Amino acid sequence: MNIGSLGKNIRKYRLQNNISQEKLAELVDVSPNYIGMLERSDKIPALKTFIKLSEALGVTPDMLLLDVIKEKIEIRNTSILNRMDELPEREQERIYAVIDTLLEHAEKD
Question: What does R_g of the chain's alpha carbons equal in angstroms?
């Protein structure tokens, strides 16, 4: 997990909202020093603090986690492809056929 992205996103949305570390700390009920540690990725917030952060910044939790989530999916995809490479070509084609079928019937956003 690339927790550094979380800290960068906290800082990005704090600055976009023109909120100082001190003000954000007050809104979240933590110290300004703690906000700095979060932004530098020295700390990972507890769930309760994470929710307060997203509310104070006016963003959804997934917006704060966006790059963290993307990286996890990329790692999982790479792992699956590595496992598939070990299979015979015939089995790989069967798996791709199943994936194609699932994609054809997947809900589009």
Answer: 20
